[in-house]
Design goal:
The chain is 54% helix and 10% strand. The chain has a five-stranded parallel sheet with strand order 7-8-9-6-10, sandwiched between helices. The protein has a three-stranded mixed sheet with strand order 3-4-5. A two-stranded antiparallel ribbon has the order 1-2. α9 packs antiparallel against α10 and α22 crosses α23.
Amino acid sequence: MGRNNKAGCADVADDNGVRWNMNEAAGDVKLKWQRISQRLRAELGEDLFTSWFGRMDAEGHHGGKLVVSVPTRFLKSWVENHYAAKLHKTAETEFGHLDGVHVRVRTRGLPHKVTESVERKADVSPAIDNLSKAAVPPLFDRNQPLDQSQTFSTFILGGSNQLAHAAVSRVSEAASGAAVTFNPLYIHSTAGLGKTHLLNAAAHRIRERGQRKVLMLTAERFMYGFVQALRQRDTLAFKDQFQQVDVLLIDDFQFLQGKTMQQEFCHAFNSLVDAKRQVVVAADVPPAQLDTIDQRMRSRLMGGLVVDIDLPDLELRRRIVDSRYAALNHRDPAIVVPPEVLEFIANRITGGGRELEGALNRIVAYQQFNHAPVNLDLASLVLRDMSANADQCRIKIDDILKIIGRHYNVARADLLSPRRARSVVVPRQVGMYLAKKMTARSLPEIGRRFGGRDHSTVLHAVRKIDEQIKTDDRLARDVALLIRLVEQQ
């Protein structure tokens, strides 16, 4: 760490090779640092102190400069960005006026007693704790495998996913060191609509360009990695590895659980965003509906670009089915599905790519196992349980919103707004009720289409209207009329 001078004091080299002559007795500096540490612990609390100052040492004091050291670059960066003023002020209580406090990274391998109280207190769920006992692959393997079939060239573009595709493409094509246009980028949709495909495509493109380091992982894998770090008593090294990443891609963010897990992710997230490095998050619901995530984290996510992927329209479904069939036929030319059956699948299945591919695979498998010709009769029989009824497939929430607004003389913007006036709340609740009864949409999706509301709000509205129409004849007549108007749309 340094060499002794004639006065028995050590020289210390900082991260840039500049040497500091520490002419205050090492014992005095150590005693003063102990008192400073006690003050920081009392002011910040045990958890914060242990996380950010538990491994910090004072190395010397000279000419109005105090030099302290930490074991990792992440810890140095975090303290400088978040606790510099607090550290400076507290240090002056013992050393008097200071021109500055210099934080440096210690030489690797130096012995240092580690305080692990926070790590022992981490709220790790029993399920994750048990899974962590198994061998977990390295979290930060730069060559971790990606799905080779999920690239931009295989992504089927349509009106429902065009904005998400454009945003992810912009992130993927950005040059190293270029200004970040939007950060974070948050993509949400129901399962099977292409979120994971876009993240894989982005990782492929960034690696091909070779200018930036990219890391893609799921929320579950992040939790496994953190549990592993806890067991190895090395959470600081875990945090430090994020500083090597230029682009972080997180999938299935809604599964991030546990207060400590979320705090650790928040630290990594904030450090990357503050350093102008790109973060892309994908989840099943918009940030406002991440009920298990801390409000501050939700606010940071909403501060970037939030993009949703909607269900594909008929034209996009046709292209998806054709693409999946072409892939099947390429692998096995004996698989032949008539065009009218492909059209039937696209019309029958109103979900995303996974459901369309599943329907096609189901028909092909049934034909091969039963040696029956592939025709419309077979397709109708095989897919009889894979779709909502015809009315539910036809009716759209936009139609319901339009008819509700016209009937109650309420603007669409008001129906989607936070307004709580009765003249708006009742039509909004009736609209949610009709959407649940007359479409195949899920509660979270209905809430999203009604101004980004929580699924519990939709459930409350459905139950309330259900109860009121039993006793309120006027409301019952209104609902019956609205149902007829929607069906006739």
